[in-house]
Amino acid sequence: xxxxxxxxxxxxxxxxxxxxxxxxxxxxxxxxxxxxxxxxxxxxxxxxxxxxxxxxxxxxxxxxxxxxxxxxxxxxxxxxxxxxxxxxxxxxxxxxxxxxxxxxxxxxxxxxxxxxxxxxxxxxxxxxxxxxxxxxxxxxxxxxxxxxxxxxxxxxxxxxxxxxxxxxxxxxxxxxxxxxxxxxxxxxxxxxxxxxxxxxxxxxxxxxxxxxxxxxxxxxxxxxxxxxxxxxxxxxxxxxxxxxxxxxxxxxxxxxxxxxxxxxxxxxxxxxxxxxxxxxxxxxxxxxxxxxxxxxxxxxxxxxxxxxxxxxxxxxxxxxxxxxxxxxxxxxxxxxxxxxxxxx
Amino acid sequence: xxxxxxxxxxxxxxxxxxxxxxxxxxxxxxxxxxxxxxxxxxxxxxxxxxxxxxxxxxxxxxxxxxxxxxxxxxxxxxxxxxxxxxxxxxxxxxxxxxxxxxxxxxxxxxxxxxxxxxxxxxxxxxxxxxxxxxxxxxxxxxxxxxxxxxxxxxxxxxxxxxxxxxxxxxxxxxxxxxxxxxxxxxxxxxxxxxxxxxxxxxxxxxxxxxxxxxxxxxxxxxxxxxxxxxxxxxxxxxxxxxxxxxxxxxxxxxxxxxxxxxxxxxxxxxx
Lengths: 344, 271
Hints:
The structure holds two protein chains of two kinds. Chain A is mainly α. Chain A has helices spanning 10-13, 20-39, 42-67, 75-92, 97-116, 125-144, 146-149, 170-191, 195-205, 207-212, 217-243, 253-266, 271-294, 297-321, 326-339; strands spanning 155-156, 160-162, 165-167, 245-246. In chain A, the strands form two sheets. A two-stranded antiparallel sheet of chain A has the order 1-4. In chain A, strands 2-3 form a two-stranded antiparallel sheet. In chain A, helix 3 (42-67) packs parallel to helix 8 and helix 4 packs across helix 11. The longest helix of chain A has 27 residues, at 217-243. The N and C termini of chain A lie close together (11 Å). By secondary structure, chain B is α/β, with parallel strands linked by helices. The chains are: A mainly alpha, B alpha/beta. Chains A and B meet through helix 1, helix 8, helix 9 and helix 10 of A and helix 2, helix 3, helix 4 and helix 5 of B.
């Protein structure tokens, strides 16, 4: 049982890590993240990079859908805007990655702002349809605006470079991605300790009474769209540097659903939910693959289709048994640990 | 003392239904004023017009001397107009504390970037708010034991109290309470009446309330206005309103009014 955890100041009561133990664990986690590239092989690193990018993007859609209650099925398109912007800025203007990435995020945010305008009038399924429309319109632009996007063949770009050091291998990109992911996660976490984050949640829970409390709905809905798209844009930009090529297929409608599924499975409206959701959605197909391969080459042809089925069943299973997501399971475990030997 | 709220000839119709028909009403600054009337009389429509949900077709709403008839709800909140709802409109996904903090939203300054980086000023603003809420609201309304609970798990009476707390956090000059004691037992009702009196006397807020519980209305209000079918049929001090034949008729029917029996409408209208 966790005892002796008294607070003398409101500041420590509202801290992100509220006990010394949790601060220690966070330090351990940071060390583990820093040490990981020395332990894992290049396949592990490849997956880790992908997870990092997906965590950023999932946190973005979590701000919009999980916290503000505005459903978006166009998230991948915003990532695409970020990716193409980064490619263009890097190829044509020769800007370094630390300028390209924020600019890519801002351009995605600007596009997200426009796509968010209908959200003042429509919500739920109607908004889902409006964002699907945005997804397909942007997909069309990616395919057809050849002078910028290279059309169906896409565009390639030079590796990110800092002080003469090329960040081209998974090893180097891993650190870049983690170094961007952690501040972005902290930013999102901080947001929900302040008036801005509370306003988002108020819009989600009961927009009419939010208005009476003095919250300008248009303002906060658009801010949420822009912020969510900024996260998507940065994630898309990182994807561009990671794959070194940007094509329209990377940012398909399927990817938008992937991220929506990630926050639903992980837990909507918690920062942890976006993180574990992205990890789950990226990792589980790989783990299933590994299991299939363990059965030997004969099994691959037979079991490969089963992978999709098992993946789908896992998602449905989690939704049925823990509708509030993986983050809720984690919270319950933590609570049981804190209360032990008592029960709830 | 002056009038903090003046409603002049307000008319509101939904299709052919006249929810409010040339309603005029003034609220004295520092008073507790009640709007009573049978169900469907237009009380909540009046509240919704004052807080900005409904757009009346005619008439004016003047708050502290300025016309707010066409102002959007968030602007009214910034002017010092707060309300609670009949069917409790708390934010279910937030804790009690966050719900109350949200009430202060319009009076805070932190912007997106300062919030995300949790910079010094943002942090100080949040901490000052927390300290003030703990001192002036949570202690006062005796809800310190539930401050970290999500509102979804609270019983009805406490939710009403949290909603009042959230409205208080808005630093209201005029507080609209839509049926503050509806559905409460005697003890909860007495607590709530005491809170309302304290808010008026110690914080100098003006209170306008809709209520069916006539005991509460007669006990704590300085002024009562009676609505029936969208019209004001009587207004004045509680005792005078209680004896008014038109009011008795509206509540109890024509016969009772003529026989002069059942002098006071005690517990709301029929149905």
